[in-house]
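Hello Y.,

Per our agreement to keep a running log of every chain we model this quarter, I'm adding this entry. I've kept the format consistent with earlier entries: sequence first, then predicted structure.
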Amino acid sequence: MNDLVLITGGSGGIGSDIARRVVARGDRVALVARDAARLERTVAELGANALAFPADVLDVAGFGAVVERIEAEAGEIAAVAHAVGNIVLRPLHALSIEDWRGTFEINATSAFVVVKAVVTKMMRRRRGSFVLFSSVAAKTGLQNHEAIAAAKGAVEGLVRSAAISYARYGIRFNAIAPALTKTELSKSLWSNDAMRAASVALHPLGRIGEPADIGAASAFLLSDDASWLTGQIVSIDGGLSAGHPPAKMTV
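Predicted structure for the entry above:
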């Protein structure tokens, strides 16, 4: 195998889980994140098949230069997992225009920047795979999720259109739409007992997500095992997008 997989947000809970799985199957990873120290710790844990490239994915020129450096130092990028995002939970009337723009920047615009920097290289090779990240909120109405739902809806639109535009080049685009997952980014939600209990109660499978739930699906989508799968939004959400369980379960 020995393909090179670029993972943005590579030191985060989901990004690092994807990296561990990719390395375990014999491929290599190039990890990108803003926090250089945290990124180096992640790479040290993963070993020789992981390389760190500190960068901000919203710096268009800077990220483009990093992609060139990755290919010069580590080889051709075969697949990309873009695991960068944020969580802003406020009703629309309480959102500032800065909140709104910032949510779109970190979720939707960053996806555009990352895809644009890599896809032309994959076009020449006629091979590649992208995994982007949406949210259950893009499909299911959730209280106070207006900004993130709109931004992730944009990501889903990008995935579906790009899957058609680049299929003739052998490049696949898919996204995963998780519900609440236990990462550092979402700690303010799951570390509070009352909020965690309320969230668990929403999920038919009776728990919130773990990075491994998302990482396993991501690693599959990035691999050749998913070679006939493109343009899909895969809901990994404990059943939340299918519906809510009754307040009292009955047999």
